[in-house]
């Protein structure tokens, strides 16, 4: 009980919200009467494929963003490349400034439609939070701590991996969580360029005026975002060194 009380409130409260919303949706689903189109789209075999496609799209985009943004953020905090920080952040900000649908459509002229184009668009759209948080996390490490580690004989590389990055982990992972939630929501728009996602339910519901299908798509996207955000919070909590807020 004491350990539960020491946990941040969002760690145990968010699953309660997820379970409550999920249970409410199941009750509504069981008590509702669906049209043939709604039934076909919400059949478990079809729905499972759609959900897995949405998760795959989000996971691939997130992996690429992490692999690109974190090393780039680290490089931009080093003295040799520090002068390029403002330029890099402003370029990454273009993805956030542009409308997501417009960004995806523009990439179709270059790459065509489908999964690959959706991934590229999502990567461009979500790179800023991780890049910015990596830079901020490393910048906020106390300079005296860095100097002390160098003073006891650690190289610049060992100081980075053994001192700076562990202390910056909470901020960096918070950026990853933010990017994940952005990607889950934005991935719904990939349906406009031929990539399967939960957005298919939403667009079909709007196009054919099927409110139940539209509501189902919106709720499932929301639940998926909440679950991924909670899992990211658990990883963030586990990866944060003791004594680091």
User: How would the global form be characterised?
Assistant: flat
Beta-strand residue percentage: under 5%
Instruction: Note the total helix count.
Output: 11
CA distance, first residue to last residue: 21 Å
Q: What integer value in Å does the Rg equal?
A: 21 Å
| Helix content estimate | over 70%
For the sheet with most strands, the description reads:
none
Sequence of secondary-structure elements: HHHHHHHHHHH
Unreliably modeled segments: none
**Secondary-structure class:** mainly alpha
Number of extended strands: 0
- Mean pLDDT reading: 88
Describe the structure.
The protein is mostly helical and 245 residues long. Helices cover 80% and strands 0% of the residues. It has helices at residues 2-6, 9-31, 36-42, 44-76, 85-97, 100-111, 115-139, 143-151, 156-186, 199-207, 211-239. Helix 10 runs antiparallel to helix 11 (211-239). The chain starts with a helix and ends in a 6-residue tail after the last helix. The model has no long low-confidence stretch (mean pLDDT 88).
Output the keywords.
245 residues, mainly alpha, flat
